[in-house]
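anyone seen this seq b4? input:
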Amino acid sequence: MSRQAQGWLLLIVGATLLSVSAFSTMYVNYVRPGFRPMLVTAGAVLVVLGLLSAARRGPGHAPRVAWLLAAPVFAIVLVAPPALGSYAARRHAAAPPLATAHAELPAAEVTELSLGEFIGRAYDPAGELAGRRVRLTGFVVASKTGWHLARMRINCCAADALALEVAVEGAPAPREDSWVRVTGTWIPWEDGIPAEYEPPAIAAIDVIGVQPPAEPYEEPA
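predicted toks r here
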């Protein structure tokens, strides 16, 4: 690989990084939204280095295998992998409830909660969810006994994702991987909070299909 070819490779990688971070929101399928400034900066640096290297004449050589660096670029451009969905949820470990101090629920007819907060409150001995109507949003995952509402939680990127799941009862299963908004009430465990993690359940009152959110993953509170 000549020096000019190396420069063009850097330029392609940098331009692709900029296209998914500076000019679109595709990057949120892979990393947390807070990483956007770093991605834009890295893309801009690669573009500048690529232009300088491509314009520079002189000896230079790199092994042909270096072209493999472009493989992720073509994967993003040609395939555009979507955010993790039901396939990943069934194969990733479940995200345990976070030991977080929760503020008192507002006095509203229906309270909007993230799946992570709903799970955390379900495991709270105070039992504040009892009898309260809540609204949860996630994608559909089929299970042996029915279906779950799910979302992936990430700390850094999709590679460290954990599955947040809530069992839905009282409503037929929508199409798997479709995004829905479920309104209902928490179903307490018959024998109290289990010693080992078990997804909490919600008795559905209403299930409405929605568009996938701009930010598909949840982040730790």
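The two ends are 47 Å apart (CA to CA). DSSP finds five helices and six strands in the chain. kinda curious what u guys think
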